[in-house]
Write a structure and sequence with these properties.
The chain has eleven helices and six strands. The chain has about 400 residues and is mainly alpha-helical. The strands form two sheets. The chain has a four-stranded antiparallel β-sheet, with helices on one face. Strands 2-3 form a two-stranded antiparallel sheet. About 10% of the residues have low confidence. InterPro entries: TAT_signal, Terpenoid_cyclase/PrenylTrfase. This is Secreted protein. Keywords: Signal. It comes from Dactylosporangium sucinum.
Length: about 400
C-alpha cells in the first residue's frame, strides 16, 4: 500500500483529516558500457543509450530497478575521486542527511552499485563495467574508513557511534559482499568488507551495548542489524557470533515488542516505522532462516495492526490511527502501491499469516499496475534526490 503523510490538500474527507491533525584493487573486468572519460580522478560511467531504460525489457517483478538504472550514472559520477581526505565519498546529496563526508549512511547505495555491476540483464549495460567497479571500490574504501575501532559507524557526527548507521550498514555491506562474490570482483575489498562486518557484528551483538537496554528503543534499527548479521553470517560463518545472534533475536522478541503487539520506536509505537521499515527487516530474517520466533513477532504485530487501521468507505485503502505514532504521521494507506514499494518485503509473511495480506497490494492489482507501467510511452524516469522511492531497501523487495 502507498503510504501518505498527512497531505496539505487532497480529497475533501482527507483534507479534513489532515487539517484536524495538522554503495583499490580490482579484478580484471570487461568494460561494456563505459568510455574512458575521467572526472574527479576516476573514469566516468557512460550514460545510458537513448531510449533507455526501455520499459518493455523489464520482467514485471524487476520493474522496480528501472528508475534506479536511470539514476545510476549521475549518482555514480558524483563519487569523489581527487580529494584524498574524502576519496570515495558519495557526493551530491542523493541519499540521507546530513550529506556530509562523515555520514556512513550516505554510502549505503554501494549496494545499489554492486547490484548493477553483478547482475546480467538485457536492460543492464553496466554488468561488469570497469568504471562502475572503480567508483564502487572508491565508495567502499570511504565507507569502511569511517568505521570506528569498536565496529560502529557514525551518522550525525564523526565521533558518533550510531545504531542506525551500524544496523543498516551491516545489511547493505553484507549484500554488497554477496554481489561482489557473485561477480568475482574486487577480491581485496571483499576481504576488507568481511573484516568490517565482523567488527560491526561484535559491536551490535554485544549484550553490554547500551542499545539493548529494555525496553529496546529504535527497534527498526536493531532489526536492521539483526537482519544484516543474518546475511553476513551466512556469507562468513562464525560459530561464536552465530550463537550471539540467535540469543539476541530471542531477547529482541521479548523486549522489543510490546504486549499489545507493536514494536517500540522509540518507546511507543509508530505505524510508519513498524509497517514500512521494521516488518520488512524481520521478514528478511524469516526468509533466510525460517525463524519461528520472528514469525511469532509478525503474527502478534498483525493482530495489533488490524485494530489500528480503518477501512475506507470507498474501498480504496485504510485510514490509520496515526495519533498514536511517536515519530511520523502517515494518515492513510492505499490498496494499490505501484513499484517501487518499500513495504513489499513484509508481504513475505502473508503465506504464514494470511490476515496480513489485507494490507498489501493484491496479486491482481500489482499485475495490473505493472502492465500499465510497461505500456507507458518513453523510458523509465530518473528518481530525484531525496525522493522517498530512492531507497536502498526497495531493491530487496
Amino acid at each position: 500500500m502507498v503510504n501518505h503523510p498527512v497531505p496539505a490538500a487532497a480529497l475533501s474527507r482527507r483534507a479534513l483529516l489532515s487539517a484536524a491533525a495538522s554503495a583499490a584493487a580490482l579484478a580484471a573486468l570487461p568494460s561494456r558500457a563505459s568510455a574512458e572519460v575521467v572526472a574527479n580522478g576516476l573514469p566516468l560511467l557512460a550514460p545510458l543509450p537513448p531510449g533507455a531504460p526501455d520499459r518493455t525489457l523489464f520482467a514485471p517483478v524487476e520493474q522496480r530497478f528501472a528508475s534506479y538504472l536511470a539514476t545510476l550514472p549521475a549518482m555514480v559520477n558524483d563519487i569523489e575521486g581527487t580529494d584524498p581526505a574524502t576519496y570515495g565519498f558519495m557526493r551530491g546529496g542523493w541519499w540521507r542527511e546530513p550529506a556530509s563526508w562523515f555520514n556512513a549512511r550516505v554510502q549505503e547505495h554501494v549496494f545499489t552499485l554492486s547490484w548493477f555491476h553483478a547482475n546480467d540483464r538485457p536492460w543492464n549495460p553496466y554488468r561488469g563495467d570497469a568504471a562502475l567497479a572503480r567508483r564502487l571500490d572508491a565508495a567502499l574504501q570511504h565507507y569502511l574508513s569511517l568505521q570506528h575501532s569498536d565496529g560502529a559507524w557514525p551518522e550525525y557526527s564523526r565521533t558518533e557511534h550510531s545504531l542506525a548507521a551500524t544496523g543498516f550498514g551491516l545489511g547493505y555491506l553484507a549484500k554488497t559482499l554477496e554481489n561482489l562474490r557473485r561477480a568475482d570482483a574486487l577480491p581485496q575489498r571483499r576481504a576488507a568488507i568481511e573484516q568490517a562486518l565482523r567488527r560491526g557484528m561484535q559491536w551490535l551483538l554485544d549484550p553490554e551495548n547500551g542499545i539493548w537496554r529494555t525496553p529496546i528503543e529504535w527497534t527498526n534499527q536493531v532489526a536492521a542489524g539483526l537482519a544484516g548479521s543474518t546475511v553476513a553470517l551466512q556469507l562468513t560463518p562464525d560459530a561464536n557470533l552465530q550463537g550471539r545472534l540467535l540469543e539476541r533475536i530471542e531477547y529482541f522478541a521479548e523486549h522489543g515488542q510490546s504486549p499489545a503487539g507493536f514494536f517500540y520506536d522509540p518507546l511507543g509505537c509508530d505505524i510508519n516505522y513498524n509497517f514500512e521499515v521494521m516488518l520488512p527487516e524481520i521478514a528478511e530474517i524469516y526468509l533466510r532462516t525460517g525463524s519461528r520466533t520472528i514469525l511469532s513477532m509478525a503474527r502478534r504485530f498483525t493482530d495489533w495492526f488490524s485494530y489500528n487501521l480503518l477501512r475506507e468507505p470507498d474501498g480504496s485503502g485504510f485510514l490509520t490511527y496515526y495519533a498514536v505514532s511517536a515519530r511520523t504521521s502517515v494518515a492513510y494507506y492505499d490498496d494499490v502501491v505501484p513499484d517501487p514499494d518499500r513495504t513489499n518485503l513484509g508481504s513475505m509473511f502473508v503465506p504464514a499469516i494470511p490476515n496480513l495480506g489485507a494490507f498489501f497490494t493484491s496479486r491482481e492489482d500489482r499485475a495490473a499496475s505493472r502492465a500499465a507501467w510497461a505500456a507507458e510511452p518513453g523510458p523509465a524516469p530518473k528518481l530525484a534526490k531525496h525522493d522517498g522511492r530512492f531507497e536502498v531497501r526497495i531493491l530487496l523487495s
